[in-house]
Amino acid sequence: MQRDEHKTTIYGHLVRVPELPFWGRVTIDLQIGLITKIERGEHLEADHMFGGDCLIFAGLGDVHDHLREDNTGKQNYKEDYTTGAAAALHGGVVHVSAMPNTVDPVIGGQQFQWHRNRVRELDHPVVILNYIGVDATTRPLGKAGEYPYKVYFGKSVGTLTVTYGDELDTILGHYREERVSFHVEYEPIVQMSVGGRTHSDRRPVECVNEGLRLLLPLIEKHGIKAKLCHWSTGGKSFEIIAEYRARGCDIELEVSPLHLYFDTSMTDEDPSLWMKVQMNPAIQAPQHRSDLIKGLKNGFIQYLANDHAPHTEEEKFSAFGQFKNQFPGKTNKEIADIVRDNSPDLFAEICVRNNTSGAPWLDTHGLICCWLMREHGFTPQDIARVASYNPGVFVNRFLPFQFLDRDFGKGFGDLAEGYMGSLTVLNTKKETVVDRKDLKTKVGWSPLEGETLPGAVEAVFIAGVRY
Questions:
Q1: How confident is the model at residue 39 (pLDDT cuts 50, 70, 90)?
Q2: pTM of the entire predicted model
Q3: In degrees rounded to 5, what are phi and psi of residue 29?
Q4: Which of 31, 138, 269, 319 maximizes the CB count within 10 A of its CB?
Q5: Residues 231-253: what's their mean pLDDT?
Q6: For 139-178, what is each residue's pLDDT tens digit?
Q7: Which residues of 253-270 are buried (b: 16+ CB within 10 A; e: fewer)?
């Protein structure tokens, strides 16, 4: 095979929605970064050859990330665009979408432009998009459908919060027919539950279902194209969502790896897990986790979305800060280790108290995809749908308005002519031990640290270039 320096070819087991994997060769034009040809067949020569242990997907995408950087620089110690993008690349992710609840929230054109200028300045191979936050003071930028918006219906991290249904009704009246993603937890129920023993008690299923009960009529009323973020409950919530979908409402769902991997039976057995898995909304009972896995597999849930939310271990172990005077110079994590060794019962009691919510997940995204295939029977096509194709469909509509001087062709999400030559190769036969020395996130830890997960990220190509 004669080498063309302006093109590259990749051969292996290709995965597209909804087809069975097939042997084939992808040709990518390196000058424009787009796929120019897909050929089917075995034993084709290529510049990059992958055997039967590997599956080649259109590059994995993540539609929900907190990358922390803004013009204040106050949270750059946790993550910034460069380190967040490096973690994404390590996890096999080729495009990410950053949430707006930074210290200076991204709620208007001036803040949005700062972030777009910063992304352009860095010119990282991982493509970074930005959501725009919504509150009572904001209005849409541009025409309907040009930008992704985010509403925090319930308080999470940051200052963007909408508390009551009538307030939300007024706000959504300005965003008719826009694409809006929602954090859904009814804040009055959260406030009534502050005395709960665990985070799941303090943020119970009822706060999600009540938020949903108030939100969905407004989505219907204002014609909102909705995406409900990091969904945490099955059962009743699925029934309510199905009812509104049947009435013609455009409602999509994300689910995070944290809610797929953990449930309260695990934290009941080992309370120290709360130091890793506290998140808003909270993990719930095993049946909810089972419903979420099933919903992602059967298409009720559209997106595997990380909600990558990096916090330092000092912040995650904040409840142990009460002993700082007794252990001067020690970090919260070091104090926790001392308390655990000297008083296991006290250690367990403090672990269930309120700490900082959120965890880093970008580094392990590809491993979670392999885990879903190995442990929960997801087909390669299922993974392509929830981790490549659907995320691509979501972001492709926004690319022209966030990258004014770049042509992405047909965008991300498919192994087809005219799409981005960005691919993720997963080795389904290898195993990977999650070790903090390998992580690229700036906070340097993972909820899966020490776990052995099936699979590995074999290679990532962005615009035809291998990383």
A1: very high
A2: 0.96
A3: -80, 115
A4: 319
A5: 98
A6: 999 999 999 999 999 877 767 888 888 999 999 999 999 9
A7: bbbbbbbbbbbbebbeee
Q: How far apart are CA 282 and CA 384, in angstroms?
A: 27
Owner of token pair 């665990």: 198
Give the per-residue pLDDT at 154: 81
SS3 labels along the chain: CCCCCCEEEEEEEEECCCCCCEEEEEEEECCCCEEEEEEECCCCCCCEECCCCEEEEECEEEEEECCCCCCCCCCCCCCCHHHHHHHHHHCCEEEEEECCCCCCCCCCHHHHHHHHHHHHHHCCCCEEEECEECCCCCCCCCCCCCCCEEEEECCCCCCCCECCHHHHHHHHCCCCCCEEEEEECCHHHHHHCCCCCCHHHHCCHHHHHHHHHHHHHHHHHHCCEEEECCCCCCCHHHHHHHHHHHCCCCEEEEECHHHHHCCHHHHHHCHHHHHHHCCCCCCCCHHHHHHHHHHHHHCCCCEECCCECCCCHHHHCHHHHHHCCCCCCCCHHHHHHHHHHHCHHHHHHHHCCCCCCCECCHHHHHHHHHHHHHHHCCCHHHHHHHHHHHHHHHHHCCHHHHCCCCCCCCCCCCCCCCCECCEEEEEEEEEEECCHHHCCCCCCCCCCCCCEEEEEEEEEEECCEEC
Place of tokens 């949270």: 75
